[in-house]
Amino acid sequence: MKRPANASQGAATRHAVVIGAGMAGMLAAAALCAHTDVTIIERDRLPEGPEPRKGLPQARHAHLLWSGGARAMESLLPGVTDAWLAAGARRIPLPTGLVTLQPQGGWMRRWPEMEFMISCSRDLLDSVVRSRLAEHPRVSFLPDTELLALEGDASRVTGVRVRTPEGTERVLASGLVVDASGRGSRATRWLDALGVAQAPLEEVDSGLGYASRLFRAPGGAEDHPVINVQPDASDPVPGQSATIVPVEGGRWLVTLSGTRGGQPSSSADRFESFARGVRHPLVGELISGAEPLSDVVVTRSTVNRRRFFEKVGSWPEGFVVLGDAVATYNPVYGHGMTVAAQGAMALRDHVVRDGIAARGLARQVQKAVARPVSVAWELATSNDIRYPGAVGEQPGPLQRLLGRYVDRLMVTAPGRPLVAKAFLSVITLSAPVTALVRPEIVLAVLRGPRLPRLVAPPLTDIERETARRTPDGSDALS
Length: 478
Fold this sequence. Notes:
This protein is α+β, with helices and mostly antiparallel strands. Helices cover 31% and strands 21% of the residues. The chain has helices at residues 23-32, 67-76, 80-86, 122-134, 187-194, 271-277, 282-287, 336-354, 361-384, 397-412, 417-427, 439-447, 461-467, and strands at 15-19, 37-41, 65-66, 90-94, 98-101, 115-119, 139-142, 146-152, 157-163, 169-173, 176-179, 201-204, 209-216, 226-229, 240-247, 251-258, 291-292, 297-299, 304-307, 319-321, 327-328. Strands 5, 13, 14, 15, 16, 17 and 18 form a seven-stranded mixed sheet that branches. Strands 7-2-1-11-20 form a five-stranded parallel sheet. The chain has a three-stranded antiparallel sheet with strand order 3-6-4. Helix 1 runs parallel beside helix 8 and helix 2 (67-76) runs parallel beside helix 8 (336-354). The protein is globular and about 60 Å long.
């Protein structure tokens, strides 16, 4: 998109290389560009606008940018929130703009705003960030470029070896290399080639599969809330969910999911029936009169996988791993982008404090990156391991005790705004998990819900009218 950054050896300490032009990579570049020239290496050809690209197939499914991530991104790229909204995204207050059936405790009440989310397609999110960075004088993109290896040794990474679009090999010297290449990262292989010890690996697999399809939002439903019917992991059956996320262009992005033995299929004929067959048929009822705008897209790569890079004893100088290259999570929790943004903030804060050439910087950043990763990891895996047939380390006595506490908290949250606020602050990664065990929250959880359980979706009259627009004119919610 612009000139490559100066990669001569003499300029290495004034040059950072970021591997991957996805959200994590672009945010890493945003974290660094006030302090050094940055080159972003990307194996895909990058679109000019909000269009799909080969290396981001998950973009066709619903993406949730929670307030914890949106605030981090705004800190890294001031004004980006307004740019998203100007491009067609929506800022949805939580739980005001959310109709969600909790795993336990019935439907969440739609109290005044406690947190928020940004609702749009992943393509739009990335496009706005990419266009902002493309205008920055210290950021350059090298698309259609393959990374072959890290340069350096076990003590220090000094750059990268790449293959250009013309097929020639080239070395980019760098004072700092950031791997943000996502789920398919080859960081362990690159580090092994340099003689760096392997990072411990942990996996938890619920067998989740998910399927998505775009629909045209019915007339008058452009400002419809997010709809989310969640599974109950305590049931001895596969966990199945259905979600409607309003996205730009007057469309609904509908994502269905199911764990091992209950996954949705790619069949368009079975999409609506699956949505009707989850714990509540609301999503199926809503889409029954909506016009499909795409085929059904299915993904099965949903294993929770974490590399504990922060535990490697002799971590090399000049190398940091961020985003999905560190850990991937069951996508139904929507934590990937938020964790990437908070990791990029940790990178920025350490560079501001210590300088980009500081000794031990990479190791300190890797430890800081692990903190938001750990929060999302515990939230995802503690729930996923409970589904039938889940593969991974089973929870110990303390984890089981905490699990019972969280179950009671989930029962209480729909009937106590204090507990709901604490829960939303944690699930949006706006507060640490310890917010759930503050004395006033524990006391409220022990007392249980103050208000009766909601047994029907808390829709407004206008939203209910939209839900009634079935093809045969019948009342779907009667």
